[in-house]
Amino acid sequence: MRRLAIRQLVELSDAILTTQQWSTSGRGLTVQLSSLASSDSSIHPADTLIAEPRHTSGSRPAAQFRKTGRTPGTLFSLPGEESMLLTFDQKDIATRLHKLGRTGWACQVFDVKITPDVAGATEPITFPALGRQVHMNAATDEIENITLMYCPPDRKVRVKVPLKVYGEEVCPGLKAGGRINWIARTIACIARGDQVPEGFEVDVSSLEIKDKLTYGDLQVPEGVELAVKDTELPILKIMKK
Question: What residues contact 151, with CB distance under 8 A and at least 6 apart?
């Protein structure tokens, strides 16, 4: 995986917002950056992450960024296996992770808005990106770094989305003293970048003890494909305590 020359990219941010090309110096790689940046801000309107370019990598520079309230991050899977080194506001990332959880983070498509950091560059560049890994300090729970994957609307991605239930308060099996035996807490699926579901909901309001729900009971949105081929596999059962 090669790292994108961030300074060159930012210096040409005005050109990127039109239709001009940018070439990676000395690598022979030319990409139409106007086709990589988000052209329609309504595609992923829910969340925008503000990022700043960084020009150093390694544990020591990363620690310095964290001391100044910045979380190091990487945007990867750009054409040519390029990547961008970035930093994000520490509190903003922590708040989003608390709200989404790790599972929600890994199926959330963000607009990553990269602010220019050189004189003469006036416009930020925005890329659609799917949350991927979150690395945390095991002792302090501090977020050490994050990764995001470039995710244009037409790219198919495999994600695991949370499974949510409703109807528990009237479920006969639960009212009779049963419990939900979770077999799958997340549902693996394949979707385009502009069709990644936030989660799957299932209704347990009519389930008795020993009843179950399977992958075939899921309401799968158009354009989304379940990664599991056997739809008779159970996702939850109502069991006796």
Answer: 77, 109, 128, 129, 130, 157, 193, 196
Residue 162 sits in the same domain as residue 231: yes
Cβ burial 41-76 (10 Å sphere, 16+ → b, else e): eeebeeeebebbbbeeeeeeebeebbeeebbbbbbb
Return the bridge partners of 3, or none: 83
The verdict on 72 and 171 lying in the same domain is no
- 138: CB partners within 8 A, 6+ apart: none
For 55, the token pair is 């020009």
pLDDT tens figures, 32-46: 444 455 544 333 344
Instruction: Give yes or no: residues 143 and 228 share one domain.
Output: no
Residues spanned by the domain of 96: 2-153
Q: Name which of 129, 183, 136, 132 is nearest 159 in CA terms.
A: 132
Burial label for 128, CB within 10 Å (0-12, 13-18, 19+), is: buried
Greatest alpha-carbon span in the chain: 70
List, for residues 182-232, the tens digit of each pLDDT value: 999 999 999 999 999 999 999 999 999 999 999 999 999 999 999 999 999
Give the domain-ending residue among 153, 185, 200.
153
